Each structure stands twice: as C-alpha cells, then as structure tokens.
C-alpha cells in the first residue's frame, strides 16, 4: 500500500507487482529449506533470487545499479517475503540492505558508493554493522570502542562489540566508534564516527555466541586490538556519526517491523488452516469462540500495526528537515513497538491453537514464536520504544 495523496488507501500498481514478485520468490522455498537455514545452512539461493528480482537495490539510486525507490517499497517486499514463509528474511535485509546500501547511499563518499553499492545490489557483497557493546546496548553515546587518531592521520581502534549479526559472512562492516572523548564535546551525542571496516582483519577477533533462536545470521562478539583505519574509511562526517546513524536505525526498525507483520500474517494463516482442519468431538476446533476470538484479535492487531508501518515508511520517503525527521522517528518507534508486539502475539495465539503440535518443528510455529520474541527485544526493545514515545511524543520527563 502506498500512502500518496492520489491513491489514498489504494495499493499502487508498482506495489502490487512487488508483492506478487515477492510471493513468487518466497513460494520457491518451503519449510524444509528454512529449517535448514535455522540449523546453519546459508540461504544462498534465496538471496540470489532476491538480487535477481531487484529487491536488494530497491533503495539504491539507479546510477549505482539500483531501482531508485524508497523505504515504502523495501518494507513492502520484506513483509510479503516473510508472510509467505521466508523466515528471518527481514534480518538478511537489515544486515545487508539497511546497514549497507541505505547507509552508503545516504552518507558514503562517491568512492565508497562506486565501489560497494553495485556489488550489494547484485548480492555479491555482504555487510554487517558493529554498534552494540557489553556496556552500551541502547546507550550508544556510552561507547567504549575508541578510534585514536595517530600522527600520520590513521586511526587505531580498540574495544569490543557484542550481538553483531552476520560477521562471518560479511565482506564489509559498518563500525561505530568514538573519535573524541565525551568530556571534550559539547554534547554527549557528538564525537562518534562511522567507519567502513574489514571484519576479517587480523586485528579483529570474533567469537560466536550460542543463541537459542532460529536466525539466518549467526551472532558474534568482536574484539578490536590496534585495528587500523584511515580517513578514507570514514563514512559521513567525523564526530557526527550518531546523527547520521539515525538514517540507518529508523529504516532498520521499520524493516524489522515489516518482518513482524509478515510473520504475524503467516502464523495466523497457518492457525486458521489448522483450526479448520483439526476435528475434535465431531467438529472443527475453529468453530469454537475460544479459538476464534484470539485469532480475530491477533489478526486485527497485525492489520492495525501494518498501517503504522506504512505511515512511517511514507514519512521516511516523503519528508525532510529536522522537525519532519523528528516526527518520522516518533512514528517509526510506534510502528516498531506495535508491529513487534502484534507479530509475537499472533505467533503465540497460533501456537496455542495448534496445542501440542505447535511445539513440533514440523509445523514451524514454534520457530516463528521464538523468532518473533526476538523482535520485541531487537532492534530496539519494546521498553525503549515506549521510553521514546513517552519523552519525545508525549513530552514526559526523560526516564533513563
């Protein structure tokens, strides 16, 4: 659905075709494929199909091989892929398309764009982002990772990162580090810089984390010990990286929200089919209100959250300026909160509908349940979304 003055709530032909193509791609991969992905298999063929369909370059300008569209189209694609069974596809798009293509399109140098955007669009280059740390999860200004400038203009980076997705497959990494101490900048949100880094450098050590959720990307802890970068590796403006990062984290939240809508739709569809087919005491269990009402509630909440995601995506594409960006961030946080909560509730209701069968991996519901639970924690927990809404939208005192 495209929120434009001309179309209102009518879906544009472009978006209809995108959804149709996304369904065709998703329908080529069944539950067995995604169970294998959850067990460690790389979704190479799926990603190649996404590249061939033009999905990976949807937000990239045409001059760099992309489609020249926006976040509305990106969230449309992700939602439809996940709604038709591509479990965890939203994470693949966040790690590569948002962290990579969106960041470079907005803030990369011309050299960085010319070198990296086309391979990202073609699916030949993988990306990741190293932001969160053991002592600075949601509190990015408290980053300990420090890039100290040397006399020759290079930067030596020391520190650690945690919960970094897809490092093992990534060719390039968006690295967030402090370049000026907090006590030397006017505001604590200044002094942070974005770098283009090599995750496989000998001075970058990684350790895989044991995570009990099904994802297409493994999670890692990273240690940087004298890792060297140059001024040419800076993305955007030195010391202003946290502000530039908003152009990455807001799309990240919306793509994650689109995935939550997709998994909610998929879970409800499976639950409805099961409730119609499962006969107990001579009638389908779906004939009982104890089954009907939770599914009806979950469906309506997913649909309501979907409208917020569409509104936030439209705002991100159509608005500019400080006040507009503030409003976009507010709606993006509301969309992320409502979508992740609605998506998880839908999988929970679907699990309950399936009864004991819901815990069998053959039905995929328990895999959806675990994955959707992650969505209420990352990217950006439900509590932090509520904090932002309370402070920035409602004008309540800062609570953290």
UniProtKB/TrEMBL annotation:
Residues 12-124 form the Acyl-CoA dehydrogenase/oxidase N-terminal domain. Keywords: FAD, Flavoprotein, Oxidoreductase. CDD domains: ACAD. Signal peptide: none annotated. The keyword Transmembrane helix does not apply. Its cofactor is FAD. Residues 240-392 form the Acyl-CoA dehydrogenase/oxidase C-terminal domain. The keyword Oxidoreductase applies. One of its GO terms (molecular function) is acyl-CoA dehydrogenase activity. PANTHER family: ACYL-COA DEHYDROGENASE (PTHR43884), ISOVALERYL-COA DEHYDROGENASE, MITOCHONDRIAL-RELATED (PTHR43884:SF12). This is Acyl-CoA dehydrogenase. It comes from Halorientalis pallida.
């Amino acid at each position: 659905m495209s929120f434009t003055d001309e179309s209102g709530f009518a879906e544009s032909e472009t978006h209809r075709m995108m959804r149709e193509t996304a369904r065709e791609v998703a329908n080529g991969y069944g539950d067995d494929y995604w169970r294998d992905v959850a067990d460690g298999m790389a979704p190479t063929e799926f990603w190649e199909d996404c590249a061939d369909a033009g999905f990976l370059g949807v937000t990239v300008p045409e001059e760099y091989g992309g489609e020249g569209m926006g976040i509305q189209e990106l969230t449309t694609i992700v939602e439809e892929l996940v709604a038709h069974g591509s479990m965890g596809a939203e994470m693949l798009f966040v790690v590569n398309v948002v962290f990579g293509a969106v960041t470079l399109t907005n803030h990369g140098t011309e050299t960085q764009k010319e070198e990296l955007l086309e391979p990202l669009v073609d699916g030949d280059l993988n990306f990741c982002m190293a932001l969160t740390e053991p002592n600075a999860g949601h509190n990015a200004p408290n980053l300990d990772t420090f890039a100290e400038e040397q006399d020759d203009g290079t930067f030596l980076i020391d520190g650690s990162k945690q919960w970094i997705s897809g490092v093992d497959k990534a060719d390039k990494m968006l690295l967030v580090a402090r370049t000026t101490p907090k006590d030397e900048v006017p505001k604590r949100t200044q002094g942070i810089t974005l770098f283009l880094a090599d995750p496989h450098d000998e001075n970058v050590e990684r350790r895989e984390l044991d995570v009990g959720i099904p994802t297409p990307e493994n999670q890692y802890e990273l240690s940087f010990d004298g890792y060297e970068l140059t001024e040419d590796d800076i993305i955007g403006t030195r010391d202003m990286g946290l502000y530039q990062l908003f152009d990455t984290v807001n799309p990240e939240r919306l793509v994650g929200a689109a995935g939550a809508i997709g998994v909610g739709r998929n879970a409800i569809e499976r639950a409805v089919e099961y409730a119609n087919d499962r006969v107990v005491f001579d009638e389908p269990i779906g004939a009982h209100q104890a089954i009907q009402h939770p599914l009806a509630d979950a469906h309506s909440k997913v649909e309501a959250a979907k409208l917020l995601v569409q509104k936030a995506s439209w705002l991100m594409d159509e608005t500019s300026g400080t006040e507009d960006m503030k409003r976009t961030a507010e709606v993006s946080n509301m969309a992320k909160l409502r979508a992740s909560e609605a998506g998880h509730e839908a999988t929970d209701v679907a699990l309950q509908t399936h009864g004991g069968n819901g815990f069998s991996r053959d039905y995929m519901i328990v895999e959806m349940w675990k994955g959707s639970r992650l969505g209420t924690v990352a990217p950006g927990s439900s509590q932090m979304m509520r904090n932002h809404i309370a402070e920035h939208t409602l004008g309540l005192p800062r609570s953290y």
